Amino acid sequence: MSGRARPAGFKNLLRPERAEDYDPAVILPRPVSRRGGPPRVAPPVQIGADSMTKTPTAKDTVLAFVDRINARDVDGILALMDDAYRFVDSAGDTFRGRDYMRATWAAHFEQYPDYHILVHRALQDEDAVALFGVASGTLNQAGQLWDENHWEVPAAFLGVAANGRMLLWQLFSDTAMVHDLVQANESR
Questions:
Q1: What phi and psi values does residue 48 have, to the nearest 5 degrees?
Q2: Alpha carbons 63 and 68: distance in angstroms, whole number
Q3: pLDDT along the chain (188 residues), means of 10
Q4: What pTM does this model have?
Q5: How many domains does the chain have?
Q6: Is residue 51 in some structural domain?
Q7: Where in the sequence is the domain holding 71, given as residue range(s)?
């Protein structure tokens, strides 16, 4: 655990210990369990026969980016990134560079081999798309994916795209639970 003390009466609403602590208004149930089959995913972007003349919309591009993330396809992710691409994490730190992003995504998928983004809602304007849903994964510990190392957090993402290329991918989520899980398992 991290050194942060939990307030008296604290209930972990994301992973309740008792059934009576479950609040369906707060917790977003998994659509399909990891063992029962793959979670629902946004369908891959299908661009019609006129794809030579039609430039994908920002929404097409952002959803294709999520599809490549959910497929854990590092090359596919990089193929959608513009040279000016930026990633902004939940702490507000900005990262750039194709080589850095290749290494970062590869390491992320090694650490969380079942990482997945479930999109519940997408809102867009001309070049930006806001996605709201859940990010989930299981910490890989010596090649094992234990249930106690699984996490799900509400998440929002901002994707900015133009001409079929991602310019920005920004995460908005409280990742403290994920960091606590990683830290607690470092000593195992």
A1: -65, -175
A2: 9
A3: 43 44 39 43 44 79 97 97 95 93 95 96 94 94 88 95 96 82 68
A4: 0.69
A5: 1
A6: no
A7: 19-44+56-185
pLDDT of 184 reads: 77
Tell me how far the alpha carbon of residue 4 is from its chain's centroid: 25
- 5 inside domain: no
Largest CA distance in the chain: 60
Looking at 39-147, list the stretches that DSSP marks H as alpha helix, in order from N- to C-terminal side: 58-70, 74-80, 98-111
Domain-located, residue 105 = yes
CB within 8 Å of 85: residues ≥ 6 apart:
96, 98, 101, 165, 166, 167, 168, 169
What's the CATH code of the domain at 32?
A: 3.10.450.50
**pLDDT single digits (tens) 13-25:** 444 444 444 444 4
Total count of residues recorded for the chain = 188
DSSP secondary-structure letter at 152?
E
How much is the pLDDT for 53? 57
10 in a structural domain: no
CA dihedral 69, 121, 62, 89 (to 10 degrees): -60
